[in-house]
C-alpha cells in the first residue's frame, strides 16, 4: 500500500468517527481536500415529491463570506432544475452502478443566471458530483476554484475508488441526523398541528396537519394514507404551508417548530 493510500484510509477512518455528529460536514470537506484538493463541498437529497433538500455545505471563500452555504441554498431553491446534469441523473432510472461520479465544468452550464451566481461570481471552475442513486437519493459535490485549477485525472480516479464508501457514510449520517426527529419523544400529531395553528401563521387545518406529519418524519405517501387525501393534495398543502411559514424545506420547518415549541 502506497503512502497516498495509507493517508486516504486514515482520512476515511477519521470521517467515520464523525458520522451522525454535528462536525461531520467540516470533516467531510477536510477528507475531500485530502483526496481531491477540494475548495468547497455541498450535499443535497432528492425528495419523493420532486424537490431537492439542502443538507449541508462547507468551504471558505476569501472575498465572499458564506458563499458555499448561500450558493447551495440558492441551488436547492431555484437553480437545480436548470442543471442539466442533475436532471439527467435523476431521470436516468436505475443506474448500472449505485454510486456514480459525474464531472461538470463551469463553461458547460447553459443557464446564465445559474452559472453566474453559483460559479462565475466565486470563480468556481469545476464540480465533481457523487450521486447515490438508491434511496435516499443523495448528491455530494466537490468544487475547485480557478486558483486551484481543474481536478486532475488521477484525482478523479482516486475519488471514484472511494466514492461508494464516502456516500455510505453520508447516507448513514443523514439517517442518524433524522433519527431524533422521528423518535416517539415528539408529541402526537394533533398536538403539533394545534401548536402550528396557534402560532399566528394563518395555516389551515389541513396545512397544519400535513406539516405536523412532516415534523414526525413521515413521507408524503404515509401522510396521504393517514389523512385519506391524494398524494398530489398533500404536496399542495405542504407548498401552501411552507409559503405561509416562510420556509423552503423540511429542515426549515423543523427549525421553525423548535422555536415555536420553546415559546
Automatic annotation (TrEMBL):
SMART domains documented for this protein: HTH_LUXR
Boundaries of every HTH luxR-type domain copy: 200-257
GO biological process: regulation of DNA-templated transcription
Alphabetized Gene3D superfamilies for the sequence: Winged helix-like DNA-binding domain superfamily/Winged helix DNA-binding domain
Entry's Gene Ontology molecular function annotations: DNA binding
InterPro entries for the chain: Sig_transdc_resp-reg_C-effctor, Tscrpt_reg_LuxR_C, WH-like_DNA-bd_sf
SUPFAM superfamilies documented for this protein: C-terminal effector domain of the bipartite response regulators (SSF46894)
A Pfam family reported for this protein in Swiss-Prot or TrEMBL: GerE
Name the UniProt record assigns to this protein: Regulatory protein, luxR family
Organism expressing this protein natively: Xaviernesmea oryzae
Taxonomic lineage: Bacteria, Pseudomonadati, Pseudomonadota, Alphaproteobacteria, Hyphomicrobiales
Amino acid at each position: 500500500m502506497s503512502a497516498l493510500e495509507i493517508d486516504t484510509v486514515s482520512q476515511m477512518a477519521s470521517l467515520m468517527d464523525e458520522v451522525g455528529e454535528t462536525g461531520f460536514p467540516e470533516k467531510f470537506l477536510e477528507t475531500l481536500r485530502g483526496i481531491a484538493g477540494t475548495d468547497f463541498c455541498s450535499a443535497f437529497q432528492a425528495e419523493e415529491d420532486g424537490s431537492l433538500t439542502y443538507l449541508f455545505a462547507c468551504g471558505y471563500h476569501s472575498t465572499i463570506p458564506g458563499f458555499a452555504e448561500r450558493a447551495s441554498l440558492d441551488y436547492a431553491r431555484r437553480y437545480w432544475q436548470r442543471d442539466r446534469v442533475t436532471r439527467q441523473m435523476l431521470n436516468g432510472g436505475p443506474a448500472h452502478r449505485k454510486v456514480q461520479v459525474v464531472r461538470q465544468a463551469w463553461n458547460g452550464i447553459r443557464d446564465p443566471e445559474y452559472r453566474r451566481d453559483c460559479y462565475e461570481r466565486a470563480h468556481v471552475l469545476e464540480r465533481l458530483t457523487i450521486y447515490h442513486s438508491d434511496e435516499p437519493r443523495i448528491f455530494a459535490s466537490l468544487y475547485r476554484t480557478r486558483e486551484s485549477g481543474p481536478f486532475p485525472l488521477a484525482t478523479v480516479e482516486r475519488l471514484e475508488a472511494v466514492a461508494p464508501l464516502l456516500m455510505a457514510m453520508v447516507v448513514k449520517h443523514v439517517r442518524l441526523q433524522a433519527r431524533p426527529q422521528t423518535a416517539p419523544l415528539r408529541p402526537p400529531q394533533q398536538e403539533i398541528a394545534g401548536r402550528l395553528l396557534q402560532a399566528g401563521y394563518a395555516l389551515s387545518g389541513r396545512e397544519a396537519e400535513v406539516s405536523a406529519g412532516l415534523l414526525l418524519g413521515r413521507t408524503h405517501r404515509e401522510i396521504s394514507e393517514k389523512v385519506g387525501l391524494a398524494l398530489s393534495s398533500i404536496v399542495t398543502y405542504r407548498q401552501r404551508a411552507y409559503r405561509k411559514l416562510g420556509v423552503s424545506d423540511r429542515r426549515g420547518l423543523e427549525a421553525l417548530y423548535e422555536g415555536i415549541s420553546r415559546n
